[in-house]
Amino acid sequence: MLKRQLKYFSIKAFARGLFCHSRCSNRESSFLGKQRLLDTRFHGYDNPSHFTGTFARDFINSFFKCKASYRLLLTPCCLLLTSHFFISCAPKVITPVPPQYREELSLDEIVSKVSDDIQVLKAIADIRIEKNSELYDQINASVIFQRPDRAHMRMYKFGMLVSDIVKKDGELYVLTGKKDTKLAGLIEEFLYAVFWWDDVEGGFLYSQADEYIIRNVRKEIHLDKATLLPVIQDISSSGKTVHITYAEPQNYEGFWYPSKLAISVDDFRFSVKIDKLIKNPPLGESDFKTPSGG
Prior knowledge:
Number of domains: 2
Low-confidence stretches: 5-46, 48-52
CATH class of the largest domain: Mainly Beta
Helix content: 10-25%
Strand content: 35-45%
Oligomer: single chain
Structural class: alpha+beta
Shape: globular
Radius of gyration: 33 Å
Order of helices and strands: HHEEEEHHHEEEEEHEEEEEEE
Strand order of the largest sheet: 9-8-7-6-5-16-15-14-13-12-11-10
Mean pLDDT: 77
Number of strands: 16
CATH superfamily of the largest domain: Lipoprotein localisation LolA/LolB/LppX
Distance between the termini: 95 Å
């Protein structure tokens, strides 16, 4: 008996019910004897057991021919099928990925591809500073890096400039704010982290399953083999070791970069979230300007 009743609830009727459009004029109709409403979807309703009209005609007719108990049983199935239909038809979002490199590369080829005529980078970043795992400071920063070793960092709190530091020709200049050696040192580590491919000449390249390792007397860098983006960098400089990790690649106008950096040196940790990294922006008159006017 159940099989005979279910035959009226056919997939064909359900599909036609979903996609049929009205060909009749608007008219007032009541649904199951309830309040009369102007309904453009269910025209042609004559009695509680027969629809002669439009949208969902075959579906409704078949549905009402089933016994009440079977209709109760079938209702969840209808809802499930309908929800599945609309979910499966929703547009799929394609997540962009960095360029992929399939072939084995030499050290010179890697440096050539990643440097890509980059002479200047401008970063807009949020920086959280911790000392011994406790919050030490939190700043916003605008930083301009120019190869090979220039950097100009402007630090802000609540939108106000609190520190302005320039690293130029091996010298460090504090133009605005108190001289904080750790904040001043951050500019150098940040420079190492961004221009990671500099100073790798004469190094050794090790190719592994999913990464390249570049190693020389001063630094060791691990690169994702498919994207050539850095993953880890360890630097030995001035009697200290700087450990840098990179994460969450981001794309800005076709330029891919890791948007999260963690820089650890001594008992300090700098967590850097790069909101934007601009390739070869024009320089302003005040960029890299020092008290001597150079």
